[in-house]
Design a protein that fits this description.
The complex is a heterodimer of chains A (477) and B (302).
Chain A (H helix, E strand, L loop, with lengths): L5 H16 L5 H17 L5 H21 L3 H38 L17 H16 L9 H9 L1 H4 L7 H8 L7 H34 L6 H32 L17 H7 L2 H12 L9 H19 L3 H20 L15 H25 L3 H13 L15 H16 L12 H15 L14
Helix pairs in contact in A: 2-6, 3-4, 3-5, 3-6, 4-5, 6-8, 9-10, 9-18, 10-15, 10-16, 12-13, 13-14, 14-15, 15-16
Chain B lengths: L1 H30 L6 H6 L5 E7 L2 H4 L4 H6 L4 E3 L7 H13 L3 E8 L11 H4 L10 H7 L5 H6 L3 H5 L1 H4 L1 H8 L23 E3 L9 H13 L2 E6 L5 E3 L2 H9 L4 E2 L10 E3 L2 E2 L1 H16 L1 H7 L5
Parallel strand pairs in B: 1-2, 1-3, 3-5, 4-6, 5-7
Antiparallel strand pairs in B: 8-9
Helix pairs in contact in B: 5-12, 14-15
The chains are: A mainly alpha (477), B alpha/beta (302).
Chain lengths: 477, 302
């Protein structure tokens, strides 16, 4: 059941009405109802994985209490590592086992030892990377005594399985969501209105920008050997907007619908393509994941303290692990590695916290610099996205090589019978709208909100791509 | 909550209004176009006279050269559509009859299409803009499973088939951007590209097809002489007995599958190139329209 599906368009209003008119009496009723509908929502993918979700939830719930109650350090450590090993174990089995088994077998074959990998015939449970990280952060926070364990199993189950964030985040923190879950929610019109606007804007990003760009990006990436240079560059740009529209659109919808139930989720995107350097980009892209890795990996490793060598090591670890989190493929590792390389100069020069404010453009020389910084950051980001999108590292390098060698820079008529020019205009219009609303969560609220909303609805129904139905990219992670 | 329900009601009302307005705009554009495709050329036309009309899938569209018929003095148009099934061929013929087309002979390519009664979405969608303006189209679609949504929800059909009749197609229609579909009197010549010259059609099973029966009925009612043919395939085809099986169900269909031999005449296994199509058309003309030989054949099935 995808957020942009007809089934979900029926599901959400029913849940909303029942939540506020039938189950709104107590906090427990509200939470219990949301847990039930979240499990129902999750069962649409594969009901068998409900048991995995339930087990992961109960594991963290029980180990959290045990860690807190243990008086001996050995006991605390036992429960802590039990939770960590089981949680990471699930990820390892479902997401990474086949990759490692295959890579190991290939390495053996390369040195002349014949072997065939023992692969598992399992499908990746949707959202496993997200809800596992919820549980991990919760247990780690209890272990380090940053929070107290949650005693109410329903409240905890809601924190892990709340349907707007269950399958593709944002990755929530117990410190942020649990306190909200502990209180009975009353209906807030302004918050709900904000939520509706955010859902509509998320839909624009998904069906108008991401899915339309996907049609072109797929056509180009799938036939890159016969595409000319400009088409290949456009392919990378379209994919950049596809993945941004897709994931930030999903996040907007998740945040928006959560507001309908009176719960605020962590912001996941903050106009990343207006970043002036790669450090700023990573403060604005998939914020809940970046900050998760910062708090639970980078800082425990020493962060930016210690020698330069140690700092460089930490940066590479966090980026490569972050790449690997996306999927068991060398392309994601390469993508993480490239981003670490991008980040390195600003770390060594100490400029990684230079651009903390939102970018401004005026009619002066400094703005020219800002403009070109944004353009340069976007360009290198697109280059990295080629590795993210390509089927293998070799084809990514091949793709880049063909940008320089595949002849002319003339535009090309693509196989799917549509010219690129109109999409470029659409993307340009999208960029302008985003630029003008970069201080807000979404562009609809404020002056002329009714007109802006009407235009958004118009673009969703008239310009959206529906025939080539596309899933959300991040569901596979 | 009251304010919120009011907001949602306003949004839904705006949505409904937009759907109705957009539906009207798109439909109006398509109702005024006749130069981008074969469906609109027929739908937005009045009575026409033809000696020969060709119907069928790409195996009609790429195989019959109207120019050769015209040289014989036969006014011809190739209404074959790439991807079309008999569902669409039948509907096309119904529209022609409704518009009082005077047609002497209908050549129908019915071979591989005999095995199913499904609509071909990519072609069927082209009829949908007119669903509220034609009882025939409405009735033809009425047995399709998504008929209610397509007919009753405004603009739904343009959203559901956005790649075919959505914004981009509507915009190009409104700005009169030409296509090559109507060039060469509807015939689309293919070049010779040495490619995959093999095919496996063993899974296909010809059936008594209700749309073929419908086409026969329409022809009878309107005094159109119907010639149904099966057209050639390349040499390396597994399951060529399909054509014999089809002939057993419908003995009146002329099996011309083997009249053109040699892969040099093909663009792909199921489609002849221009050279092959010209040879094939010459055979068809010779067999059915040559005064001397036609007498024994032109009677067709009726």
């Amino acid at each position: 059941m995808f957020f942009n599906s007809l089934t979900f368009a029926i599901f959400l209003p029913i849940v909303f009405l029942l939540y506020w008119f039938v189950f709104s009496k107590t906090k427990t009723a509200q939470n219990a109802f949301l847990v039930v509908v979240s499990y129902y929502f999750y069962s649409f993918w594969d009901w068998r994985f409900l048991f995995l979700l339930l087990f992961s939830t109960l594991l963290c719930y029980v180990t959290g209490i045990k860690i807190e109650k243990s008086t001996k350090e050995r006991e605390r450590k036992f429960w802590f590592w039990l939770s960590i090993i089981f949680n990471l174990g699930f990820l390892a089995i479902f997401k990474y086992y086949n990759f490692f088994a295959f890579s190991f077998s290939e390495a053996l074959n390369n040195i002349g030892l014949k072997s065939s990998p023992l692969l598992l015939d399992v499908i990746l449970p949707v959202g496993i990377s997200f809800y596992t990280f919820h549980g991990l952060s919760y247990v780690i926070d209890i272990y380090y005594k940053r929070i107290e364990s949650e005693k109410n199993v329903i409240d905890y189950a809601l924190f892990v399985s709340y349907f707007p964030l269950l399958v593709a985040g944002p990755i929530e923190r117990a410190t942020h969501l649990l306190p909200q879950v502990k209180l009975k929610r009353s209906f807030d019109f302004e918050k709900a209105k904000e939520g509706i606007y955010q859902i509509i804007w998320g839909l624009v990003k998904k069906v108008v920008i991401a899915d339309t760009c996907a049609t072109y990006a797929n056509a180009i990436f799938d036939n890159y050997t016969s595409m000319n240079s400009l088409s290949l560059i456009l392919g990378a740009v379209y994919f950049a907007f596809q993945i941004y529209g897709d994931f930030s659109g999903y996040s907007d919808m998740a945040l928006g619908m959560s507001k309908l139930f009176g719960l605020d989720l962590l912001r996941n995107f903050n106009y990343p393509y207006f970043s002036r350097d790669i450090a700023e980009f990573w403060r604005r892209w998939h914020i809940s994941l970046s900050s998760w890795f910062r708090d639970y990996l980078y800082i425990p490793l020493g962060g930016s303290r210690g020698s330069k060598l140690k700092q460089v090591r930490n940066v590479f670890i966090i980026f490569v692990v972050s790449g690997f989190w996306h999927g068991a493929n060398w392309t994601f590792l390469a993508w993480g590695f490239i981003n670490a390389m991008y980040f390195l100069p600003s770390l060594l020069l100490g400029t990684n916290r230079n651009n903390m404010e939102t970018a401004e453009l005026h009619w002066d020389f400094n703005s020219v610099k800002v403009f070109f910084s944004i353009l340069a950051t976007f360009s290198i980001t697109c280059l990295a996205w080629i590795f993210f999108r390509a089927k293998s590292i070799n084809s990514a390098f091949d793709y880049i090589e063909k940008i320089f060698t595949n002849g002319t820079f003339a535009t090309q008529f693509l196989q799917n019978q549509r010219y690129s020019y109109e999409l470029l205009l659409l993307v340009l219009a999208f960029v302008l709208v985003e630029w003008n609303s970069r201080y807000k969560i979404e562009p609809i609220s404020g002056k002329y909100s009714w007109l802006k909303m009407t235009l958004c609805i118009l673009s969703i129904i008239a310009l959206g791509t529906y025939a080539d139905y596309k899933e959300f990219i991040y569901f596979q992670f | 909550m009251k304010k919120f329900i009011l907001l949602i009601a306003k949004i839904l009302l705006t949505l409904l209004l937009l759907l109705v307005v957009l539906d009207w705009v798109y439909t109006t554009v398509y109702l005024h176009s006749s130069n981008r495709g074969k469906v609109e050329k027929v739908f937005n036309s009045k009575a026409r006279n033809y000696d020969v009309v060709i119907l069928g899938s790409s195996r009609a569209n790429n195989h019959f050269v109207p120019e050769l018929f015209e040289k014989k003095g036969l006014k011809t148009f190739n209404y074959g559509m790439s991807g079309a099934h008999l569902f669409e061929a039948s509907l096309m013929l119904k529209l022609m009859a409704e518009r009082k087309y005077q047609i002497k002979t209908v050549i129908l390519e019915a071979d591989l299409g005999l095995c199913n009664e499904k609509e071909s979405e990519m072609i069927a969608a082209k009829f949908l803009p007119y669903i509220h303006h034609s009882k025939i189209i409405k009735e033809h679609f009425s047995e399709q499973k998504d008929f209610k949504e397509l007919y009753y929800i405004p603009f739904y059909r343009y959203v559901d088939f956005d790649a075919l009749i959505g914004f981009r197609e509507m915009y190009q229609t409104a700005t009169n951007e030409p296509t090559n579909i109507l060039d060469n009197l509807g015939y689309h010549p293919l070049g010779h590209k040495p490619g995959n010259m093999k095919n496996d059609i063993r899974a296909l099973k010809p059936i008594r097809n209700k749309y073929y029966e419908e086409i026969k009925r329409i022809c009878k009612q309107n005094n159109y002489n119907l010639i149904t043919v099966m057209t050639p395939m390349c040499t390396n085809v597994k399951g060529l007995d399909y054509f014999e099986k089809a002939n057993k169900i419908y003995p009146e269909i002329h099996n011309l599958e083997n009249v053109i031999q040699g892969d040099q005449y093909f663009s792909s296994c199921g489609h002849m190139n221009d050279k092959g199509a010209r040879l094939f058309t010459a055979v068809v003309i010779e067999r059915f329209f040559n005064k001397k030989t036609a007498d024994t054949n032109i009677n067709g099935i009726f």
